[in-house]
Amino acid sequence: MIAGKFYLENYANWQISYFMVTDADDADIIMDRLRYTGCSQKFMSRAAKLLYSNRRNTGLAYSNKHKRQSVIVVSKTTDIWEFFNSFAHEVDHIEKHIAKALGFSPYSENASYLVGEIVRNMFYCIFKKCYARFY
After folding, report:
1. Phi, psi of 60 (to 5 degrees)
2. Distances from the Cα of 51 to the Cαs of 25, 29, 44, 61, 119, in angstroms?
3. 3-state secondary structure string across 23-82
4. What's the rounded mean pLDDT across residues 24-51?
5. Rg, Å, the chain Cα set
6. Average pLDDT over residues 86-91
7. Of 42, 54, 62, 112, which is the most buried if we count CB atoms within 10 A?
8. Mode of pairing for the β-strands spanning 69-75 and 14-22
9. Contact criterion met (CB below 8 Å) for 31 and 62
10. How does the average pLDDT of the chain come out, rounded?
């Protein structure tokens, strides 16, 4: 699993916690983060079922607008194309959550910039962690 968090300074300092390439062994950690984020019991039950199932090519996204926090999860995938499919799908959910919470249209230019911020920040953090493994 590759995990971390970052803040979207241009979007009310919204916090995003991410968990990539996950499997059932990572479920407890992810469930703890969802609980900390203030996830509803209904969503927690659905998340637990998915996370402990060890299914590939899945993901989830949760946001708490009051805490200005989101969680994005992408499981292990069958290939890189499925990873990007799941990743894009979950980022789309997060973008809509944040746009709604901050009061702008998910179809606006602001929303498009938000997607770029999420992707850039996440891959910057992931790249730093992966790159550090080689040095």
Report:
1. -155, 160
2. 9, 10, 10, 12, 23
3. CHHHHHHHHHHHHHHCCCHHHHHHHHHHHHHCCCCCEEEEEECCCCEEEEEEECCCCHHH
4. 97
5. 14
6. 96
7. 62
8. parallel
9. no
10. 93
Tokens for 21? 């390439």
Give the tokens for residue 113. 């910039």
pLDDT of res. 24: 97
Tokens of 37: 């984020």
Q: What's the CA gap between 133 and 119, in Å, rounded?
A: 21
58-84, pLDDT tens digit by residue? Answer: 999 999 999 999 999 999 999 999 999
pLDDT at 102 over 90: yes
User: How does 62-90 read in b/e, with b if 16+ C-beta sit within 10 Å?
Assistant: bbbeeebbbbbbbbbbeeeebbeebbeeb
Element containing residue 103 per DSSP (H, E): none
